[in-house]
Amino acid sequence: MLTVTDAVLHYGAAQALRGVSLRAEAGRITCVLGRNGVGKTSLMRSIVGHHRLTTGSIAFEGKALDRSAAYDRARSGIAFVPQGREIFPLLSVRENLETGFAPLRRGERSIPPHVFELFPVLKDMLSRRGGDLSGGQQQQLAIGRALVMRPKLLVLDEPTEGIQPSIIKDIGRAIRFLRDSAGIAILLVEQYLDFCRELADEVYIMDRGLVVHHGPATDLDRPDVRKFLTV
């Protein structure tokens, strides 16, 4: 589904990615872990088209994306839930969800029923402004907005950050449903180790812009792997 090969990214003289390679497959959850500042968000933003790689390549469904703009990647089926949620605070919940219509054909512009099945609180708050929701509800809204796009690949950047435990469980159930029932490829950046261990099929661990470990989620119980995640 998604293949990143030897990705190198610079911000001026600073190098954020140092030859990162990664795969995410349909019907599987791929989790990227690592301490703060190791390049995880830079990698995700490169995948969705917010940053242009210095060298290396990104392919989706066998098609090179290196010259594709972010909106073209969205049209191809890549949806992004950014760190910090980035919902529109002055728009209603309904209007926030409808911003997901942008990459869709006119006949597809409806909110899929499973958005409200996964996050019923959104249905009860359709007329409320996004900025009036709690942090956890805003995260559910951000995920719902991405699902409106009917994605083939869902990229989530730290969806549990600052979220209360009950909503973390709801988000985990939603991610599991999307993998098992919808067959979506899910690429998940996470700091919450237990959340990743419960959900992931495979993990990549990054350190200083490099992938230093790749393997099944069960590897997270190994001391030689956990050393890359301790502060």
Distance between the termini: 33 Å
Provide the low-confidence segments as ranges: none
Mean pLDDT equals 93
Q: Helix segment count?
A: 9
- Spell the H/E element sequence: EEEHEEHEHHHHEHEHEEH
Query: What topology, given as strand order, has the largest sheet?
Result: 6-7-8-3-9-10
CATH superfamily: P-loop containing nucleotide triphosphate hydrolases
- Basic shape: globular
Radius of gyration: 17 Å
List how many beta strands DSSP finds: 10
Please identify the structural class as seen in this structure: alpha/beta
What is the level-2 CATH architecture name?
Answer: 3-Layer(aba) Sandwich
User: Would you give the CATH topology?
Assistant: Rossmann fold
* CATH class categorisation: Alpha Beta
What portion of the residues fall into strands of 2 or more residues?
25-35%
Please outline the helices and strands.
Blueprint: E1 2-11, E2 14-24, E3 29-33, H1 40-48, E4 55-60, E5 63-64, H2 70-76, E6 78-81, H3 93-98, H4 113-118, H5 120-124, H6 135-148, E7 153-157, H7 165-180, E8 185-189, H8 193-199, E9 202-207, E10 210-216, H9 223-226
Parallel strand pairs: 3-8, 3-9, 6-7, 7-8
Antiparallel strand pairs: 1-2, 1-4, 4-5, 9-10
Question: What would your notes on this structure say?
Answer:
With 231 residues, the protein is of the alpha/beta class. The protein has a single domain (27-38, 69-226), classed as 3-Layer(aba) Sandwich (Rossmann fold). Helix content is 32%, strand content 26%. The chain is built from 9 helices and 10 strands. The chain has helices spanning 40-48, 70-76, 93-98, 113-118, 120-124, 135-148, 165-180, 193-199, 223-226, and strands at 2-11, 14-24, 29-33, 55-60, 63-64, 78-81, 153-157, 185-189, 202-207, 210-216. The protein has a 6-stranded mixed beta sheet with strand order 6-7-8-3-9-10, sandwiched between helices. It has a 4-stranded antiparallel beta sheet with strand order 2-1-4-5, with helices on one face. A hairpin with a 2-residue loop joins β1 and β2. The chain is globular and about 45 Å long. The two termini are 33 Å apart.
